[in-house]
Amino acid sequence: MGNTTEANQNFDAVVGRISELSLRRARQKREGILMLKQNKIIAMTKLAIYEKHKGGEASEAASYYREDYISNRILRGIIRFTAVYILLFFLYILMQERN
Q1: Residue 61, class by beta-carbon neighbours within 10 Å (0-12 exposed, 13-18 middle, 19+ buried)?
Q2: What's the pLDDT at 92?
């Protein structure tokens, strides 16, 4: 009889330990999900702030493929440089006519 009582106590201890571990695992899983949601909220908030300040530039860049966007920017730079160069050249010619 003593062995049966001891075996029952051991069995109860094992079952208690298993249920404790499963409850702890469930709690950790729940907290992990909550942390994931909190991280998502933080990321979404940062994204909203970024879009508020630099949203126009980002949406323009997102509408192009990367190579098209870069070549478009390079072309704009070349055109602006040429326009400034022509303007300075005409100013130089005007200065030469005055002298």
Answers
A1: middle
A2: 95
